[in-house]
Design goal:
The structure holds three protein chains of three kinds. By secondary structure, chain A is mainly α. Chain A has one domain: MetI-like (MetI-like fold). Chain A has ten helices and no strands. The termini of chain A are far apart. By secondary structure, chain B is an all-alpha fold. Chain B has a domain of about 150 residues: Orthogonal Bundle (MetI-like fold). Helices cover about 80% and strands about 0% of the residues of chain B. Chain B is built from nine helices and no strands. The longest helix of chain B has about 40 residues. Chain B is elongated. By secondary structure, chain C is α/β, with parallel strands linked by helices. Chain C has a domain of about 180 residues: P-loop containing nucleotide triphosphate hydrolases (Rossmann fold), CATH 3.40.50.300. Chain C is globular, with a radius of gyration of 18 Å. The interface between A and B is large, with 57 and 57 residues. The structure holds adenosine-5'-triphosphate and magnesium ion. Magnesium ion binds next to helix 2 of chain C. Adenosine-5'-triphosphate binds next to helix 2 of chain C. Chain A: It is found in: Cell inner membrane; Cell membrane. Chain A: It is a multi-pass membrane protein. Chain A: It holds the Pfam family BPD_transp_1. Chain A: One of its GO terms (biological process) is amino acid transport.
């Protein structure tokens, strides 16, 4: 029991790791702030493409989404970070993470937005168009708000997944939270810094997960 | 273009490392099957347990599911892989990856199956119980069969997402597709093994992604 | 007998004119050359069996459905054909749907102001004043802040009418506005429609409310198989239908 406390919940080591881990948290949040809006926009574009009447656009969008849903994000990230330099494209870890996560997140956001758009009855579009609104106005003011509302739990779940996904950035040595914790672990040979990082993820994401459950229950009833 | 082919689709490098990556694919497939099987069974079991509404048990299940849904799998993998040896438990990297991914999938599966169970109207329970079925019988013969329909699409999606995480094994040295490919890439000083790995993953997972799209269309989700 | 052509004259004198309208879904013809001219402030009632093409004709009148051939004019302005500013034209053609199609994420007021603000670019205050006036005219000023889910079916349909009215259209199309309503709520909606007519609105109405047609309509049109079979003032139409198919339909409706 003592050994467990000593090896996993060592307050002293946690305290020492804290500044570095918090700095890592800053990077984690920065990645999220860049990648979540980008992914949502990319996903929305792909979703609109996937419900387009133009066959070429529709199939390209669906192919994009399926390809990046089939490819593990870590594979994509390593391909971009370690593979592209062979083509003379050398990206910084941050740029590599942004590009990789943009592609991956767009695919997942696209599926969610697509389900949302399809959940809005055609009558809504017809009513809006019958009052003289353009297709774009109809999308912005009538279809999209309802689509987002209908898939809000899924959108939030995806945000949770993205925050968790940022931990992969540690693999390409981007100094986010897990990278910082891992660094201290390798110096101290003690797992407590990882527990600390885990605790912070929990603190960050647990309220969101509860909120999602709450929404899901409300939609179900 | 030639440079590109030479660096990303070099025939010699491809030929040399294809067997290794194929071996890695074997590891990925075996691990994925084990995780899906164990994760879904454990998750479904927990959800059924929760249906009995024993306060303490339900509470513990909810805590477990929340924690394993909130923590990044990579954190868990590192924690188990580097932490347990310090208290005298040494597991192979394959075992660590299997345990962590199973627990993560089980957490999500529990939530999904539970949502399925609660979506069945109370009248179904009452009808079943009024014909003399016990609680467990009502659950097994009446409620679960109906829940399966709405559970399958999200469960498929989640199972795909989590089996894709077998690639994280590379970080702790599991010789799966990505593990083999990164090793090969550093030996060969050429990106072709990574290309091969990406192709291997797409070949393995794309059929499931397409199948999940089909499933989703088939069992259109209620409430959205 | 009053026929379409000798009654209406040139298309430009009618508020809404349909000329030789054809429409097929795939190889299946739904409209087989419809000619119809609705005069200013006239309420024209369209009857016909299910599948006779009533909704399709109505939806062609604001091009939610694209006719294959033929022409439509609104106050002499061509609606069909290339180069038409469709969104501009649609402001002049109000539409009321069987299933209301209110925007569930907006309040009653929000439903009415949306097009005023986004299409007519009215400032918020002005749009809300206009919307309140429209809601008042359908008797729902006290429900402005309610969302559709908080309104009864009849109230929802009246909000939908206000939404169309607020744009001050020259003609309004109604597609079975009361058939999704509980019987006790139908009266309120019909009362509102009667008032709209009394304000001088030009109306093209598809509905099975025979009694209402008798009282309020200026003209009744009977459609079957994608063609207009017969039309005339309600008194004559109901009392002495000329065509066999009309008689059969009316006796079926009377049960
Ligand atoms: N989008 C469509 N695609 C294919 N066929 C259609 C479509 N819309 C309508 N139809 C067909 O066209 C015919 C006429 O339909 P329409 O809705 O105009 O009839 P209606 O007179 O309004 O009938 P109801 O009284 O049932 O509303 C029907 O046979 C219908 O099945
Ligand atoms: Mg109809």
């Amino acid at each position: 029991m003592d050994a467990i406390l000593q090896q996993f919940f060592n307050i002293e080591i946690m305290a020492k790791a804290m500044p570095l881990v918090l700095k890592g948290l800053g990077m984690t949040l920065l990645i999220c702030a860049v990648v979540i809006p980008l992914g949502a926009l990319g996903g929305l574009a792909a979703a609109l493409g996937s419900v387009s009447h133009n066959r070429l656009i529709r199939w390209s969008a669906i192919a994009f989404v399926d390809l990046f849903r089939a490819l593990p994000p870590l594979v994509l990230l390593i391909f971009i970070y370690a593979g592209l330099p062979f083509a003379g494209i050398r990206l910084s870890p941050f740029a590599a993470v942004t590009l990789g996560f943009f592609l991956n997140n767009s695919a997942y956001f696209a599926e969610i937005f697509r389900a949302g758009l399809l959940s809005v009855p055609v009558g809504q579009t017809e009513a809006a168009r019958s009052t003289g609104m353009t297709a774009t106005q109809t999308l912005i003011w009538v279809t999209l708000p309802q689509a987002v509302r209908n898939v809000l739990p899924d959108l939030l779940s995806n945000v949770v997944e993205i925050v968790k996904l940022t931990s992969l950035a540690s693999v390409v040595s981007l100094g986010e939270m897990l990278h910082a914790a891992g660094l201290v672990r390798s110096l101290t040979y003690n797992a407590s810094p990882l527990v600390l990082a885990g605790g912070i993820y929990l603190l960050l994401l647990w309220p969101l997960i509860r909120l999602i459950s709450h929404f899901e229950r409300r939609i179900a009833s | 273009m030639d440079v590109f082919l030479d660096q990303f689709l070099n025939p010699e490098v491809l030929a040399k490392y294809a067997p290794l990556i194929l071996k890695g694919a074997g590891v990925t497939v075996v691990l994925s099957l084990l995780v899906v099987l164990a994760g879904i069974c454990l998750g479904a079991l927990l959800a059924c347990l929760r249906a009995y509404r024993i306060n303490l048990v339900s509470f513990l299940i909810v805590i477990y599911a929340d924690v394993f849904r909130a923590l990044p799998p990579l954190v868990l993998i590192l924690l188990v892989f580097f932490g347990l040896p310090n208290i005298g438990i040494v597991l192979s990297s394959f075992t660590v990856l299997f345990i962590v991914l199973t627990l993560v999938l089980a957490a999500f599966a529990e939530e999904i199956v539970w949502a399925g169970i609660t979506s069945i109207p109370n009248g179904q329970w009452e009808a079943a119980r009024s014909t003399g079925l016990g609680f467990t019988q009502a659950l097994a013969y009446v409620v679960l069969p109906q829940a399966v329909r709405m559970v399958i699409p999200p469960l498929t999606n989640r199972a795909i997402a989590i089996t894709k995480m077998t690639a994280l094994g590379m970080v702790i040295g599991v010789p799966d597709i990505l593990g083999q490919a990164t090793t090969a890439q550093s030996f060969s000083a050429n990106a072709s093994p990574l290309t091969l790995a990406a192709v291997a993953y797409v070949v393995l997972f794309l059929p499931f992604v397409i199948a999940s799209r089909w499933l989703e269309a088939r069992f259109a989700r209620p409430g959205s | 007998m009053e026929t379409v052509s000798n009654r209406a004259g040139t298309p430009s004198t009618a508020t809404l004119s349909l000329r030789a309208l054809h429409k097929s879904f795939g190889t299946f013809p739904v409209l087989n050359g419809i000619d119809l001219h609705v005069q200013r402030s006239e309420m024209v009632f369209v009857l016909g069996p299910s599948g006779s093409g009533k909704s399709t004709m109505l939806r062609c009148c604001n091009r939610l459905e694209e006719p294959d051939s033929g022409a439509i004019w609104v106050e002499g302005d061509l609606l069909t054909g290339p180069g038409v500013d469709l969104n501009k034209m649609r402001q002049r053609i109000g539409m009321v749907f069987q299933s209301f199609n209110l925007y569930p994420h907006l309040t009653a007021l929000g439903n009415v102001t949306l097009a005023l603000r986004r299409v007519l670019k009215m400032p918020r205050a002005e749009a809300e004043a206009e919307a309140m006036a429209a809601l008042k005219s359908v008797g729902l000023s006290d429900r402005a802040r309610h969302t559709p889910a908080q309104l009864s079916g009849g109230q929802q349909q009246r909000v939908a009418i206000a939404r169309a009215l607020a744009l001050k259209p020259t003609v309004m199309l109604f597609d079975e506005p009361t058939s999704a309503l509980d019987p006790e709520l139908v009266g309120d909606v019909l009362d509102v429609m009667r008032e709209v007519k009394e304000q001088g609105m030009t109306m093209l109405v598809v509905s099975h409310e025979m009694q209402f047609a008798r009282e309020a309509a200026d003209r009744v049109v009977f459609m079957d198989g994608g063609s207009i079979i017969e039309q005339g003032p309600p008194d004559r139409f109901f009392a002495a239908p000329e065509q066999e198919r009309t008689r059969a339909f009316l006796s079926r409706m009377r049960g």
